[in-house]
Amino acid sequence: MAHPFQMGLQDATSPIMEELLHFHDHTLMIVFLISSLVLYIISTMLTTKLTHTNTMDAQEVETVWTILPAMILILIALPSLRILYMMDEINNPSLTVKTMGHQWYWSYEYTDYEDLNFDSYMTPTQELKPGELRLLEVDNRVVLPMEMTIRMLISSEDVLHSWAVPSLGLKTDAIPGRLNQTTLMAMRPGLYYGQCSEICGSNHSFMPIVLELVPLSYFEKWSASML
């Protein structure tokens, strides 16, 4: 999860988030090079009294500053499209979980099980245990197996919500009357925190999401105890 004064993105837990981090660094380097070049040109024009009229009016210069930005846009667009297709790909999910947004809590249903569903409310500040995080802890965590493809079906029963977990690279809108889906796969166990990312009313900031990714054997024991 994020920590105070953090400058970059959260550490990646899923393959998709790793790709997004690489794309972020790739794009940021291109922006840095462009900014440096523009700053150098501006500073040179302001500090020198020499002007080369043939260079300023040459068609070669116009050709370069037309082709070069097009090539830069292609270098940004191709990796971006690749990641978009990867995010939409569904590879035979091992588990399906339906998430419903409410004002102002989440409800979860494990559709592969007959009667495994629960509501997830934020833990009030006065009920927090030592070490728990204010405004991020919930009474019922979403327990999921790691290293398995999991399909999340996301919708809402009242207003617009958004189910987002940054370290997994997930952000999907919960829209009333519409069922959106996304895929997640965590490569290591742990607790992963998220929040509703769509302004949904007065208690919008009190809709945390907590995913507990565990080995498959632990998940099977947990699901058996919940039934």
From TrEMBL:
InterPro entries noted in UniProt: CcO_II (IPR045187), CcO_II-like_C (IPR002429), CcO_II_C (IPR034210), Copper_CuA (IPR001505), Cupredoxin (IPR008972), Cyt_c_oxidase_su2 (IPR014222), Cyt_c_oxidase_su2_TM_dom (IPR011759), Cyt_c_oxidase_su2_TM_sf (IPR036257)
Catalytic activity from the UniProt record: 4 Fe(II)-[cytochrome c] + O2 + 8 H(+)(in) = 4 Fe(III)-[cytochrome c] + 2 H2O + 4 H(+)(out)
Subcellular location(s) per record: Mitochondrion inner membrane
An example molecular function term from Gene Ontology annotations: copper ion binding
GO cellular component: mitochondrial inner membrane
PROSITE patterns (alphabetical): COX2, COX2_CUA, COX2_TM
Chief location: mitochondrion
Cofactors, names only: Cu cation
Topological type in the membrane: Multi-pass membrane protein
Cofactor binding note: Binds a copper A center.
Segments forming a coiled coil: none
One Pfam family matching this protein: COX2_TM
Gene3D superfamilies (alphabetical): 1.10.287.90, Cupredoxins - blue copper proteins
Residues spanning the membrane: 27-46, 66-85
Family: Belongs to the cytochrome c oxidase subunit 2 family.
Protein name: Cytochrome c oxidase subunit 2
Underlying gene: COX2
